[in-house]
User: What shape does this take?
Amino acid sequence: MKQQLLRAALGAAAIGLATSAAGAADTTVVVLCVSNGGTTCKQIAADYEKTHPGTHVQVSIAGSTVIAAQLAQGAAADLVVINRRVAATVPQLEAPQDVFAEHTIVVATKGSTKVRSARDLAAPGVRLAGGTAGSFAETIQSETVARLAGEYGPAYVAKYKANIVTTKTNFEQIARLVEGGSVDAAIVYASEITPKLGVIAIGDRAVVSTFAVAVVKGAPHAQQARELAALMVGPTGQMIAQADHHDALH
Assistant: This one.
């Protein structure tokens, strides 16, 4: 009887040690990803988790400037995906690598008769969603509008701005406002295209942006972060990015 109890105790202890070891082996890799790359980052994270048991990839979504501010304030993160221009201003990053590109388009409510071309963004009565002041979305929209003004005339910029009725910090939020009918149209990145939106291409007036992936200096899970970065810039990651309406790098 004593031997049976001893064996049972030893067995329980072994199970406890194994469970403890498994728990200790679990790793959470934190990725801060720009909003327009959220779908791509989450898909790549899921693929990584399948081949790395015990590793969980936590993807947090925000605008590029918000991510930069979070890092400046000491946010704990292993990897970031942000706009290349913003990445160049963030000293907390190891050498950024280009991961995908984007171009701007106009999205309107499906079947809209109010907005049929980019010219209509400056028409009276059109409700637009803009980027919050200081956000990267605002910067990119302003650059796009300046290019459109080259075609439609200098008064275009003021008329466009007068039509902005609400603002958000990133293009994903802005596109959802158009989908929901809160506004008539907006300038966003092409990765925000969904079947619920009407899409107006703007050709060479579009602003093209490059996005980069970078490991955070001193990251607690630097090895896993480098593996994720390699997956993103490799063939599999590029296929996923293009499926999500990102532009090819080459």
In short: Confidence is low (pLDDT under 50) at residues 1-24. The first helix runs from residue 2 to 25.
